[in-house]
């Protein structure tokens, strides 16, 4: 089992926003991808525990794939 998280840059808010179809309720934002990663892992851990997936032995290690996307534009060269 692994979790896919999508991280998109919100140009208006100037933050990365992470969501996932694999974890209901995941919505995290941060100024940098590095900080977002830490917040995503903490939020997923909390959400899984709240939804009863921890069991008696705690949560197993689950790979989290954070897929980021940011759009850039090439200026129109005026010849």
Automatic annotation (TrEMBL):
<dbReference type="InterPro" id="IPR035069">
    <property type="entry name" value="TTHA1013/TTHA0281-like"/>
</dbReference>
<dbReference type="Pfam" id="PF08972">
    <property type="entry name" value="DUF1902"/>
</dbReference>
<feature type="domain" description="DUF1902">
    <location>
        <begin position="3"/>
        <end position="72"/>
    </location>
</feature>
<protein>
    <submittedName>
        <fullName>DUF1902 domain-containing protein</fullName>
    </submittedName>
</protein>
<dbReference type="InterPro" id="IPR015066">
    <property type="entry name" value="DUF1902"/>
</dbReference>
